[in-house]
Amino acid sequence: MKETEKIEIMHFDQEGYLEDGRNVYEAGKKMTALADRVHEEGYDAVFLMGVGGTWDEFMQLEYLMNKFGDRDLEVYLIHAAEWNVIGHKRMTDRSVVLTASESGTTPEVLEAVGKMREMGVRVFAMTNPEGKIGQAVGAENCVMMASDHGAGGCDTCDAKLESLRTIAECKMKEGVTSWLPTTLTLSPKVLEDVCASVAEYMKNQEFAKTPGVHLEGPFINPKCCGAQNPAFVRQPDYDEVANLNAAAVSLTKKDLENAIKYMDKANHQTAEFINNVGVYNFLNGDVQRAIAAFNQAAQMGNEAAKANLQQLQQILNMKKK
User: Fold this and answer.
1) What's the DSSP call for residue 249?
2) In this structure, are residues 253 and 203 in contact, taking their beta carbons and an 8 Å threshold?
3) Could you tell me the mean pLDDT of each successive run of 10 residues in the chain, 321 residues long?
4) Per the confidence metrics, is the pTM higher than 0.85?
5) How far apart are alpha carbons 175 and 162 in whole angstroms?
6) E strands along 208-270, which residues?
7) Cα–Cα distances in angstroms (integers) from residue 25 to residues 19, 20, 29, 31, 227, in the given order
């Protein structure tokens, strides 16, 4: 076929992309070998076990396996915490369990794996073979998982513009044109700083584009928090969500009407709120009130306010010239 058009992706790292493909292919070969082994040994049912996000992801797999699998294939989705209490009447020593854990230490899964092994149930895991769960099921029954909270030695939770630029550039080299910076369950201050840094990146998205932020937690069940740090799990807080929304969405889009609605519901005493007031005043054309708010928030230790104040001063200095 005659080539009529050539399309190039800026900053695309073809070799890195191919290397990722080779790694996925190798992991696929190991998973195929494990599946062949299970088939040869025989089984009466397949159980997909997880908690939190893993359980949610397995829900899709359960649907596909039941829809497209052989008529005699029985697939069940189970929650590790629930199984530890009530078990499952269809599970026998001929059953097979597939689980996953990014941290390799998910307590509910680790407890369930121990009990299942005592029953003679075969357990396979997508996790680090050197982690507690990996050691419990055996390295030969593990396939390594890859986390995607960052790239290029940087993490979204660094809460720095340069880190986000590095990650976005790495994503672009992989052929990814859009991505959602993903957080962990951390303190309100860190999450607010992350959202502020994402908002800053969204002003000039020179690499992979982002429409917003993906918050993993923090409003989750502390008993089912998986890889998240239970020290930062907390009850739903409307003030915190309002502040995050105002920082990362409305102000970035210069949607002042919605921004003020969010901000009215937030805690007015925090440095993050005061910094948002500064941004709001600046976008509304009130430079002096913006400077006052940025100064106040900066004195309270808010890094975003310090950066905003410096940027505003530069703008004013340029206008004087």
Assistant:
1) I
2) no
3) 64 76 87 93 96 86 92 94 95 96 86 96 93 93 73 83 90 85 86 86 90 83 73 77 65 70 75 85 87 91 84 79 62
4) no
5) 20
6) none
7) 10, 9, 6, 10, 26
Report d(CA 13, CA 19) in Å as an integer.
10
Residue 289: what residue type? R
Least Cα distance to 269 among 237, 235, 239, 306 occurs for: 239
CA 151, CA 70: separation in Å to the nearest integer? 40
Q: Answer yes or no: are the C-beta atoms of 106 and 227 closer than 8 Å.
A: yes
Please give the structure tokens belonging to residue 63. Answer: 């649907």
- Can you read off the two tokens belonging to residue 289? 């009130």
Angle 280-305-216 from CA coordinates, rounded to 5° = 85
What is the full DSSP assignment across 47-61?
EEEESHHHHHHHHHH
d(CA 282, CA 259): 13
Q: What type of residue sits at position 132?
A: K
Cβ within 8 Å of residue 154, ≥6 positions away: 160, 162, 163, 164, 166, 167
CA atoms of 303 and 291, how far apart (whole Å): 15
- Backbone phi and psi for residue 171, each to the nearest 5 degrees, phi listed first: -60, -45
Asked if 120 contacts 153 with a C-beta cutoff of 8 angstroms, the reply is no
